[in-house]
Write a structure and sequence with these properties.
The complex is a heterodimer of chains A (261) and B (248).
Chain A: H1 3-11, H2 14-28, H3 31-38, H4 41-73, H5 81-92, H6 95-105, H7 113-119, H8 125-148, H9 150-163, H10 167-196, H11 199-205, H12 216-226, H13 230-260
Helix pairs in contact in A: 2-13, 3-13, 4-8, 4-10, 4-12, 5-8, 6-11, 8-10, 8-11, 12-13
Chain B: H1 5-32, H2 44-69, H3 71-76, H4 82-94, H5 96-109, H6 118-138, H7 140-153, H8 160-167, H9 169-184, H10 187-191, H11 201-208, H12 216-241
Classes of the chains: A mainly alpha (261), B mainly alpha (248).
Chain lengths: 261, 248
Amino acid sequence: MSTRAWVEATALSAGLAACAVASVYWGVGHGPDAISAVFDPRLGNALWASGKIGLSAGVILAIATPALASAYLIDGALPPRLLVALALASALAPDLIHALVWRALLQPGLGVRWLAEDLTAPAFQCATVGLLLAVKWTPFAAVVATYAAGRRRAEQNRLLRLAGVGTATAFWRAYGDYTGRSGAIAGCVGVLLGLRQHEASDMLFSGGTGFGAEGLSQWTTKVALTFLDPGRASAEILVVILGVLVVIGLASRFVRADRAT
Amino acid sequence: MTGHRGASNLANLVLTTVALGPFAVAVAILVRLPRTSADHMDLRPFLAALPASFLTALAIGAVTLLAVFGFSPALGAGKRSAPLRIAGLCLAIFAPPIVLVLVGALALTSSTGWQPWLPWLLQVVTAYPFVAAAAAIALEPDLRAIARVGLASRGVRSGSMWLALRLAPTASAIILMLAAGVAFQGYLINLLLRDAPQRDALVALTALFPHTGIAWRSGLLATLAIWVIYLLLSLAVSLKLTPGSSKS
């Protein structure tokens, strides 16, 4: 196999996933499944919940990551080794481990009472799951962003020395300069992590009050394994995958148009 | 130094609090918990499943490691396809749990049922795309440099994977950790393995609590034990990864 073909095949290996879904639909699904999937209110509810979770995680990561990286940036410092290890451990530890710890924190009579009252309210359950994911990934994202800014940090320091500006001014300049790329990447990662998550919401709220925090993964699991209807599940997922591809395609066009101008 | 040392100290404090805070509070809860007879849960299933889970994760990490370095010759030759990579990465991040559910459902409803090798195959299929794509993008400069050395010195493609492995032990360690971390999160797979002997440690852990609602002490102990293992592994990687001084 040529190297180029291998790279493309690997980068698009997720395409295999789409093919697997399509093959299941082809094998056990039916035409009406796809039509009913589009108009299924529970699917809409699951997409909305996943979107809220992803958006919460994405917004927090997009704001916090460049802020923390900027704090290192203006100091010309790197996070110490122990902190790098903590950040790595936080990111790598399974969602379930974090969710179990948060479950204890939010347990009435066991954890932190005011935290439990606020964060477990039905209106905030999706945001709480997003917060959990953001807390899990922010340290790692900030460490990576700081290390990735190596050359820029040196240049920034040189300019700051020449200008002799105060800490707050230096921070806001660095934040403004740095927010775009690292914030956007961290935000996108947060949204995607929120969209695909399963364990956190399941462990924290068991789908939430009135299925308010039941994400897409939980819903399709239920359809496939509890209702034993893989045809309908595959139809729903095909609809979602097509939606993802359309969004990616549109985003790519915008990026190309932006570069052309 | 610019005289803004307080900023990085504050960042250190914030990051430490965020990374350590929930687990520190969990320890506090654990210390405060009264010992009750109802909390004497059997940790043996969890402990028995733990080595197999870690070995599986590391094995998948090793496979992924070799696969990721396959990128290096193409990157060194300057071949890129950003939109395709982005699309692949987005789908890879989004799709795996869904595929698991469907494949699992199909297996459950088929007449053959589960095969012993199926869970392992599912682990590789779901862990590999995400880790391979993410690591290849994150480590692209390293991989390019490695590939240039490989192409200049040997001019071969087939040997560059092994060369990369030899030249980049730190990058190898990161990829291994990332793959192992992702593979160990195969919680969904193991949801499908309730009656199979290859139960995952995490599933054994969730059997302890909190759905039972009483075994907080055992459950928190097991949770913290897993986290400490991850912390020790991360510490080993960070000692290789970071420079000696925390100030540049």
